[in-house]
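Sharing a chain and its predicted structure for anyone who wants a worked example. Both blocks are below, sequence first, tokens second.
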Amino acid sequence: MLKSSSTTAHLDPQLPSSPPPLPAAEAYPSVPTRREDRLPLERWLFPSLTDMIFVVLVVLLVFAPVGAGLLNDADTGWHIRNGQHIVRTLSVPHADYFSYTMSGKPWYAWEWLYDAGMGLLAAWLGLNGIVLFTAVVIGFTFALLFRSLMVEGGNLLISALLTMLALLSAQVHMLARPHVVGWLLTLIWVRLLYRFQAGKSTALWWLPALMLVWVNVHGSFVLGLVLLVLFAAGNLWTYLTSRDVGTKLGARTAIARLSVAGLASALATFLTPYGYKLHIHVYQYLSNRYFMDHIMEFATPNFHGNAEKYFEALLALALVAALLAARRLRAVDIVLVLFAGYTGLYAVRNLPISSMIIAFAIAPALSDAIRLQALRRDLPGWLRRACTRVRESAARMKSIEDMLCGHLIPAVMLVASMGVALNGGRLHGTPVLAAHFDQRQFPVAAAEYIAAHPIHDHMFSTDRWSGYLIYRLHPDTRLFIDDRHDLYGEAFLKDYLKALGADLGWREVLDKNGVTSVLIPPDTPLANVLKETSDWKVAYDDGVAILFTQVYRSPDSTPAPGASRQ
């Protein structure tokens, strides 16, 4: 990667500017490094640390209780049903068919390719298959992150630390939704750009093809174009500030090639069922201040949470890298850290991707910082010795890591997990996998009641529950709203929140939209009001969800004494 001459480091005068690394063979003669010295049996039977990251994550997310959190968002439900609709009709929807309030209105199902895959998988393996697929994507993403950090020159221990912090930051948004595929595509995209920056110009050839998949899987495809601009900006800074003719020429060439790749990738974004209209829609959605201020995923991170604290630790390590090894930080690295830091602080949903980008940018600099501190004469001896031990231990571990490349354990684990899913989640007759929506968070029992009674339309419920209700009740029951907020628009969402909060005018919202049944949590303001209103009666209440149905009255009937009217 080209270095920026604008960055400097304050180093001890006695420290050489580029201390030579220890020869691996001389420092660690007992570790075989040549391919012919590797034992085939060891390579196949012993998993590498990369393998173990993948295996542990998949096992935890699929078979351990922690994996239940993957279905903590009801979005999964409507993605599955939409995918089954796509497979059944062999067409991508252009109009809404889930709600009764927006039926027929233009809808941009921009994640249609993911939905189609999930529809097929759910028909084959049910929710067990959805959870297994999501766990595999997450496990592969962070295993690839760890491996990529080492390949980019990171110390193994530093790479492991950064991967762990990024993983723990990502737990805030680990859900069975298409954005996890966006994480993987972002990581591959960044890795290709760094390989290009390191001199492998052919890496850019993959970007347009990758974008073609990305734009049909998740709306985060916009980030790919932004990252291209950021890499070009980093190279532009190097070109403007460097005095070395060779460096300036390399930066100029990089800018030209990035521009061509950016143009080809931008053209690929038009190859969707919606063409240029998708770009207009995404821009209108992301630029709407009301959406950004009221949708929870776009809220500013709460740094009292655990995931946010791990992101703070990453930002602190970025500062350490800047202080101790500024010479190793390139202009591109600095631009990416600033961008990722801002986006991570802007919205909680950005934490996973921001964490991975920061890890990529600072891993080589932190590794170099350990090497530099081990050679400084002005540091206490114990600190220099500690840095030396960390560097040497990481080098030994990396030699072993490079030797173990069979990947047998992950393959066996995947085959076994697939077998369990195909067997209905049972292993030798014992249930070990039973993915489901938590009945303590979602109206599971209430949905069964609705399915057994003639409640088919004009039902008001919360946007958080709607995805599950679509999954369980579609097409027999259509809803007032769901969490496709871009479809409903700002004005409609304001009416929805007015009704849910029982604010002034709530009755007019229900009447205007012909609502005949209401399914909401018992502790919502609307539930408290409806309990005191003679026009509505409680049809079902299990403590998690309460169902109200409208009491029919003749036009000349009058409200009962004490009835609430607004």
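Comments welcome. The chain has two domains: 24-411, 444-550.
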